C-alpha cells in the first residue's frame, strides 16, 4: 500500500530577529546567533521536499543595515521563500519605512497564493500600528486612537508593539475566503500576530478575524509568530499555531516542517518547536 502523501509540505520559521547587537539576557534573546541558527535551518530544510518556506516576521530586531546579513542566508535556500514583516522589521529610520515590503521581496503587503489545492493567505497586522508609519500619517493617528480605546477597555493586548488591520484589508480577506469557499478550497492564513487564545501579543481586533474564520468555516489553520514562547489553540474549525521565536536561547534552534493532509495537519518540530498532530 503506498504511503499517504500530504497535499502540501512547507517549512516555517518565526522571529529570527537578527541584529549585530549584544544579547538581551533577561529576555533570553541572542541577536547575533540567529544567522547561525538560520543557516542550520536552511541546511535541514534544503534536504526536505517542500513547496515553500515561510518566515512569519521579525527578520531583524532593528536598523536597516541588519537586513543584509540575515537576508543573505536565504540566498542559500533552494525552496521558494515567502517573507513577511513583524513589528521589529519597522524599527528603522522613518525614511526607510516604505521600503520594508520591497526589501522582503513581497508582491504586496497582503496577498494570497495557491499550493497543493489549498489557498494560502498572507495578512499584514502591521498596517495600523505606531511603527509602520511615521507620526503625522493618517494610519499612525488611527493606530493611536485604536490603542487608546483598547487601553481604556483594559485589553491585555493594548501594547505599542502590536498592530491591527484596516477596513480595506479586512474586506479583501473576507472576499478571498468567500472565493475560496466557492471554489471548494481550504485556507491557511499566515501573519505575524497571534489571534487566539487570548494573549498580550494578540493582534488588535483579533476577535473580528476569529469570528470571520468561524463564519467562513474553511480556514483550517492560522500560523503566526510574535509571541516567542509559542502557543496553540482551536476555535471553531481553525487551529491557531504560534511558532516559537528563533532568536530566543543562546544555542537551541526552532523551526518546523508542516504537512497538510485532507484530515489533519502534522507539525514536525525541530529544536524547541514541538511536533504535533492536529486533526481537522
Order of secondary-structure elements: EHEHEHEEHHEHEEEEEE
Strand order of the largest sheet: 3-2-1-10-11-12
Low-confidence stretches: none
CATH H-tier superfamily: Metallo-dependent phosphatases
Domain tally: 1
> Which structural class is indicated by helix and strand composition?
alpha/beta
* CATH-derived architecture: 4-Layer Sandwich
Please estimate the helix content. 10-25%
Quote the beta fraction. 15-25%
| CATH topology-level fold name | Purple Acid Phosphatase, chain A, domain 2
The helix count comes to 6
For the residues shown, what is the average pLDDT?
97
Assembly category: single chain
Please specify the SSE layout and strand pairing.
Elements: E1 8-13, H1 34-46, E2 52-55, H2 66-74, E3 81-83, H3 100-103, E4 111-115, E5 118-122, H4 138-152, H5 167-182, E6 187-190, H6 206-216, E7 219-224, E8 231-235, E9 238-242, E10 254-260, E11 264-271, E12 276-279
Parallel strand pairs: 1-2, 2-3, 5-6, 6-7, 7-9
Antiparallel strand pairs: 1-10, 4-5, 8-9, 10-11, 11-12
Amino acid at each position: 500500500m503506498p504511503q499517504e502523501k500530504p497535499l502540501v509540505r512547507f517549512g516555517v520559521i518565526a522571529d529570527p530577529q537578527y541584529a549585530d547587537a549584544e544579547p538581551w539576557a533577561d529576555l533570553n534573546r541572542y541577536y547575533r546567533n540567529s544567522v547561525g541558527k538560520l543557516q542550520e535551518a536552511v541546511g535541514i530544510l534544503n534536504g526536505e521536499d517542500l513547496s515553500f518556506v515561510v518566515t512569519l516576521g521579525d527578520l531583524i530586531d532593528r536598523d536597516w543595515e541588519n537586513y543584509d546579513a540575515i537576508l543573505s542566508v536565504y540566498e542559500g535556500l533552494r525552496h521558494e521563500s515567502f517573507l513577511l514583516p513583524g513589528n521589529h522589521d519597522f524599527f528603522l529610520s522613518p525614511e526607510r519605512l516604505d521600503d520594508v515590503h520591497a526589501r522582503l521581496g513581497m508582491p504586496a503587503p497582503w496577498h494570497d497564493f495557491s499550493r497543493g489545492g489549498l489557498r494560502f493567505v498572507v495578512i499584514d497586522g502591521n498596517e495600523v500600528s505606531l511603527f509602520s508609519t511615521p507620526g503625522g500619517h493618517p494610519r499612525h493617528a488611527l493606530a493611536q486612537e485604536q490603542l487608546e480605546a483598547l487601553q481604556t477597555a483594559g485589553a491585555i493586548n493594548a501594547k505599542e508593539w502590536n498592530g491591527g488591520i484596516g477596513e480595506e484589508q479586512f474586506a479583501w480577506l473576507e472576499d478571498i475566503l468567500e472565493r475560496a469557499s466557492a471554489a471548494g478550497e481550504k485556507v491557511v492564513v499566515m501573519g505575524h500576530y497571534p489571534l487566539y487564545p487570548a494573549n498580550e501579543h494578540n493582534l488588535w481586533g483579533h476577535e473580528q478575524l476569529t469570528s470571520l474564520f468561524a463564519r467562513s468555516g474553511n480556514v483550517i489553520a492560522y500560523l503566526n509568530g510574535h509571541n516567542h514562547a509559542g502557543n496553540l489553540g482551536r476555535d471553531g474549525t481553525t487551529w491557531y499555531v504560534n511558532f516559537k521565536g528563533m532568536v530566543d536561547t543562546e544555542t537551541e534552534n526552532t523551526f518546523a516542517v508542516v504537512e497538510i493532509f485532507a484530515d489533519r495537519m502534522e507539525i514536525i518540530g525541530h529544536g524547541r518547536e514541538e511536533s504535533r498532530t492536529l486533526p481537522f
